[in-house]
Amino acid sequence: MSHSEGQNRSLALMLIVISLITTGLLLTPLIAVATPTPTQTPTSTTSSTSSSSPESTTEPTITLAVNGGSLSSSESITVGSSPDLALSVSVNGSEELTAVRVAVDNETRRIYNTSTLNQTLTRELDIPLRNGAHTIDIKTTTQRRSPSTERTHTNNTSTETALKTATSTATVTSTSNDNAAGQATATPTSSPTDDAHETQNSSIQTYVDSFTIIVDTAAPLVQYTSPFESSAAAPPPDRPTVTNSTVMLAGTFQDRSAVTAVQITHIYEYDFAGRSQSTRSVYRFSPTNGSFTRPLVLGVGENEITAEYTDRFGNIRRHEITIRLIDISAPQITLDRPIPSRVGYETLQIRGSVTDGVKLNRIDFLTPSGGTKRLLIQQGPEPTRERRSVSVSETVQLSPGRNYIQIDATDVSGNAREREATVFYDESIAPKISIESIAVSDSASRSPTVRATGRITREDIVDARIEIRNVEPENNESLIIQRSLTSTATNSNSNSNSTTHPETTQRRIQFDEELPLRNVTDPVLLRISASDTENDTESVTRQLSSITPSTERDSEDIDSPSSAMTTNTTPSSTALSTESTASPPSSSPSSSTSTPLGVTPIIGAICVIVFMSILLTRINR
């Protein structure tokens, strides 16, 4: 073979290899398109173990009877004594009980094992419960009866624990170990990861039911808040002292059950008229919102109080309290108005009240004639609410000259108070006029007015007037308005706002008058006058200055256009809204052009085959 022929053959082989590679690359898209791709569907990830999961089981039915009544799991009940307990546990036909444990306050009190169990357990629980709250846990272990469904696994096998209570408990496996006595002990097993060689039965299930029983055998605790204070844990003080006969016995309760009844007995013993006497009061009521309040009226000295508080289970708290009332304050005498020292009338009205913090015993009224009028008759020291305050209303006849008046008040403890006064009766005293205030109003919305307040005092007032007078040249006066203060207004041109209240006809007049000042010019005089039956006359005159007459207006005021017009200077704002046309982003076309499947690879393959045929032909030549 010549050298040139060898080169030609090498070149031919290289071209064949390149052609094959090109043909493969061209046919690859065709094969990829022609071959369907399976759709991947999402699947949930589940963890599988070499052991099959245990078959579904049914929770056992557990009933705890408390004094004959059924108590559900996680419920609580309050009883008044240690209750009678009965336990009932049952499972369905495919399961059997292997162990039942009864614990009170986390202390195991009863255990029942396979030697005594089958599918039901009914027992009277003779477990005494003391006063307080107790938690009873019933732990039940069950196992499927069919041997075909029981599977024993080694490693990575755990016992399923179902809790029907809100509290979490550790997962344990109860293994029944029969001893000589036929008893079984619930032994918690370690975690599967702790002992890989421990064999457990996946069909064993453990359930825990919890019950709460509150035993209330203690009497209620009382915390007093009035008239003394004490803590709930301590009894009330032995002999509390008060200084007021009216007190409030009040307090709050602390008890495991509600206090339903309160009884308060008040006994007061005293001596009166040489004999020993006593009073007894009993109050029964139901407290509200865990508290109570009861008003008591005490007598001077010792008051025996017996309080009994009963809860709904009949537990009774009894307190015996001696409240001592001491009286060191004298009565108070209060008059509606002070007694005047000088008057011009022959009768005087005295009104007021006499009060005491404990009890009034006697009230005497000494008259100017030297007599004594007893307003309150003496009584014993027994508690009496009505004798704490007495009203006084007396009319005193005065004689010309000095008149002595005195009020004496004494309480049951002998504390005394007196109020005395000397009144001089002068027949020549003219009526006294007192002006308390004068006010002129010149409001722009109405005509000016003048308002005068005051009083007139004198015995036998027969006439009293208020006048508005105008002062003319040469000091001559002209009457503008006149109104009587002993009757209704006589001026028909004015609207009377009179609040005149004669306390006693023809004796005292309290006036409050408002008069118009229309068409009145300065100067203006306000005059008040009064006269009695003896023609003694008194008058008081005041000059009113700075009176600006106001022009009369129509009954309906019309506002001027300038005042009625409101200029709106708020500039109108032009809201410029810029519209931004947001063209949706154009989706860029795919860079690859869709070509009919198989056209390009086939053409390329044909070209390669033609090229190889030509090449081989030339090599053979």
Automatic annotation (TrEMBL):
<feature type="compositionally biased region" description="Polar residues">
    <location>
        <begin position="182"/>
        <end position="201"/>
    </location>
</feature>
<feature type="transmembrane region" description="Helical">
    <location>
        <begin position="12"/>
        <end position="34"/>
    </location>
</feature>
<feature type="compositionally biased region" description="Low complexity">
    <location>
        <begin position="156"/>
        <end position="181"/>
    </location>
</feature>
<feature type="compositionally biased region" description="Low complexity">
    <location>
        <begin position="569"/>
        <end position="597"/>
    </location>
</feature>
<keyword id="KW-0812">Transmembrane</keyword>
<feature type="region of interest" description="Disordered">
    <location>
        <begin position="486"/>
        <end position="516"/>
    </location>
</feature>
<dbReference type="InterPro" id="IPR013783">
    <property type="entry name" value="Ig-like_fold"/>
</dbReference>
<feature type="compositionally biased region" description="Polar residues">
    <location>
        <begin position="538"/>
        <end position="550"/>
    </location>
</feature>
<feature type="region of interest" description="Disordered">
    <location>
        <begin position="529"/>
        <end position="597"/>
    </location>
</feature>
<feature type="transmembrane region" description="Helical">
    <location>
        <begin position="597"/>
        <end position="616"/>
    </location>
</feature>
<keyword id="KW-1133">Transmembrane helix</keyword>
<feature type="compositionally biased region" description="Low complexity">
    <location>
        <begin position="486"/>
        <end position="500"/>
    </location>
</feature>
<feature type="region of interest" description="Disordered">
    <location>
        <begin position="35"/>
        <end position="61"/>
    </location>
</feature>
<feature type="region of interest" description="Disordered">
    <location>
        <begin position="136"/>
        <end position="201"/>
    </location>
</feature>
<keyword id="KW-0472">Membrane</keyword>
<protein>
    <submittedName>
        <fullName>Uncharacterized protein</fullName>
    </submittedName>
</protein>
